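Possible race condition, two jobs.
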Amino acid sequence: MDGALTGAGDALPRSFFARPVLDVARDLLGRVVVHRTPEGVVAVRLSEVEAYAGEDDPGSHAFRGRTPRTEVMFGEAGHAYVYFSYGMHWCTNLVCGEEGSASAVLLRAGEVVDGLALARSRRVAARRDVDLARGPARLAQALGLARAQDGADVCAGGALRVLAGTPVGDGQVVWG
């Protein structure tokens, strides 16, 4: 494993994601998303996420049903749903729940814990390191995520993975 990732633990199994969206969202806090590219590795410890309950949630891309864009959301838990937002930014969700439910958790913010120089090179506009993965578009950019990662299986040991990290205690979590 690379530098700071030594203590990040094993990749999360599919069973972690194959649960209700609110449970997965809560339990993703403190986990580490790792993306290995030809340029190197960047890892982000998640500090903010947002749950979307598929066709029952007006805020979800799946609210109006299955489309070519949202097909991944209706699939097997443990896959990345990467989409272009507002015609300018990539954002990433992790599919959870039962196949066909279209539930997913948006990765909203985190702290770069490995690959800081590479993350900086991808976010030249960020003035401070703390801002490198602050916000869903910045997080995806720091990790180097784009259309090619849409549908990536984060449980299969590939280039995009979610590691156990250090779960966050209930006293440190704010729900809204």
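Job #2 (started ~2 s after job #1):
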Amino acid sequence: MNGQLKFGIEEEYFITDLNTRQMPGNLSRAVSDKCKAELGQSFAYEMFQAQIEVASPIFTSLVQAADYLANARGTLQHSLKFFELGLLCAGSHPLADWRVQHATDQNHFQQLFRDYQRVARRSLLSGLHVHVEIPNHLDRIQVMNEVLPWIPFLLAFSSSSPYWDGDDSGFASYRQTACDEWPRMGVPEFLEGDVAYAAYIAFLISTGSMKQPSDCWWGVRPSARYPTLELRMTDACPRLDDALCIASFFRLMIAYAIDQSHPGLAYSQKSRWILMENRWRAKRSGIYAEFLVEGHDRPFTIEQWLVMAEQIFGETARALGVESVFSHLRKIIRDGSSAERQRFVYKEAVGSGRSVHEALSNVVDHLLMETAAVQHEPKSCHPQSHVQPSSVTLAP
């Protein structure tokens, strides 16, 4: 096993007006310029002016990732305070109005808005994306097929988008529901390996269905630019520790898959049916869902699925030195995911006599606080000598 398995993390954030608690419709160029200057090459623009991304350097340990992202969040918060703005990390912004958001003035994003119209304009969403390297001699699609059944498990733990357009959506991850408006998002097509994937991509490009391989936006996909598999389904996490745990678990699953003699061999069309159903259950009910597990005739609670995960991945976790992922996932079950925590704040506010808008403002304050709850002092975020620079810029 490669104990130094390289990975990178991308976090997307909503910029928030600290006076109104809303996302500004447009943003002064001075704001993004200051954030970019402070963050360095890991700064990335997003589809909307009041949304930004950190695309991390390449890491070989979770300690590196924790230090870097804590520092990046702190640096951005420090930069934004000068403009009376804050940093909010969640799958959706409780008070954001997609109708008033201005697109970022870059060719790539402008093309997305031309091609996808209202679907793009409504895509006011933030995700947690994780890249993990795959050795060159392995078939990335086969490795992907090995880990795919577990992706709804991670979605449930990351769920942080219950509020949409100023109302409770009824979903733990409304972000994933909104993502379904796009083509080629969600669950990947059933493909047996890299050859079939190449034929799929070639067909879509030759028929004018998409312009480039990176226009395939599945919840897990082979990166078009890097020798990695990229997790995209998970919501952005307000608590950095939760984001790090989910990233670590994805890396752990990849490490396990790489060590199998025939990764993905057991993945079938039935496996995909189960995956699609579990994704629906995860985005609807989050950690309170009951999940289908292939080979079992009864649904599993998230606690039962976690027990199975520890049985399957425990040895690999010990070899990687990341055994703590299991205890942290249990902590999320005890505390509730961000979706549950947000709803708790909202219900408390309404119960104390506050209006709907005031209650949602309380939820925004809660998310701002959780996003800021890191124990690192802001300092230069330019990559240090022990990490390698990476600038992965993603589509929505």
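The chain is about 45% helix and 10% strand.
Logs attached separately.
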